[in-house]
Amino acid sequence: MNSSGPLFIAQEAVCFYEISTIYNSCPRYLFYALLIASCVTRWTGWLADVFLGAAATYAGTAAIEAFILVASQQKRPRPAPVTIPFVSDNTTLWNDFPQLITETNQIMIQPGSIELDGDAVLAIVVTGYLVFLPLQCWSRVLTHQRARNVLFYLWNMLMLAGSICALVYAANKSNIPTQYMFCFPALPPFDQTSSDGWQSSWRTSTWNNSVWETFSNITRWSQLGDICFNPCFNSTQALRQPKSLQSWVASKDSELSHPARLWDKIVYSKRYIYSLIILCLVLNLVHLTFKFLPYRSRIPSAKIVVIWRERKSIWNSFKEELKAARSKAGEKLEYKEAALTSRCRISQLNHLRPFFSVVFLRAIMRVLADFAILFGLLFSMIISPFTIIAFVGWAEWTIYNDGPAQESPQQVGQWSYLVSFGLLLVSAAILTLKYRLATTSELDEEIEKLRDDLEKLEQRKEARLRSETAPLTAPTNTAESS
Prior knowledge:
Blueprint: E1 9-17, H1 25-40, H2 46-71, E2 80-83, E3 106-109, E4 114-115, H3 117-138, H4 146-173, E5 179-183, E6 192-194, H5 207-216, H6 218-222, E7 245-248, H7 259-292, H8 304-309, H9 311-339, H10 358-401, H11 412-432, H12 434-437, H13 440-481
Parallel strand pairs: 1-4
Antiparallel strand pairs: 1-5, 1-7, 2-3, 6-7
Helix pairs in contact: 1-2, 1-3, 1-11, 2-3, 2-4, 2-11, 3-4, 3-10, 4-7, 7-10, 9-10
């Protein structure tokens, strides 16, 4: 420390990569709008395909980034001590350095940074997965053909895998240690500064020696390209350029000025999100059981209107099955009681045995399975939309607290996605009118092509029928020859 004050000071900072332009507000809101449009136009063919196709490709990109973020997480070095000049708590430097470190002469340095794309990716992939539940129940078009059904479920698996990776990455993000910047007391930093690219010469040996040599040598300090010395600029990220790393100083009135309190809120909210994803996964399995497994359920349809119309018959079928199982078990018990001598006293517990018989327990299991299917359908159709709204609100609130967007909606990097989708929608609409716009010769060519395609399909169907009937006729021919 010199006579005019400390040689340098240390204060807390937040080092982060801003949200990429592809995940900024306009593309995200367009993605939400496409999902809503897919639900609203679920009974149509081409229109729902355009909406859901555009949303699926966007969410698929986010899922792939979630895989990369989890697979290439930052390898943080071991914490290293740095000795700093002692600054008392009643110093006047608080006005220029709101996150000043006082009443200590040593801190621990472990460079690291926050990837804010993780919050946007989490919002996109989890929303895409949650929308799968109501879509698979409401839309008959999306699950009508086998190829369309396979594609739809592959997208669901991709969203589930992306959601798991995004949640894992979000949980690990709270483990990033506190970052510091070192500055001259007479030169307070800007609220937010960008990295000019870290030079290996800025770290001579240990972090302690690097910091002291930088502020002891004005020539070395002038080579930083920034007012302050930010060790976090030494960290890297697989999908980012080093110069896109930002360092931000929070004011005392800001939420980020208390990182522990902010992360506690995020972790607390993620407990609800984890539970929600697990519940949706269970309901997906219930729905797949109802749809694909050879189980004859008493639920007549996956449509809420049909279930409501047939609610009395469904309830009566449940009661009749339990009543029939109770009667059958009671008949067996009466037969056993008749075989006993009159001198044997029948225990009162024997009257409860029909309820513990195998026949009655099987009936209860079938009724419980139907109730589980009914609950899964009702949750998917009614409750899950409100859950999606709650999650999107929470995710957008988290992204809003990450700081201002990298680009404004007026910039071409934002509204270009909306224009691209509009052009795609116009192109798809024109293609649906191709028969009305076609000339007579074009219609003749289309008819000939359809005839050729129809002939090929008939040949393929006949070949498949022959391959299916061949295993059935082979044993008969073998028996006749013997």
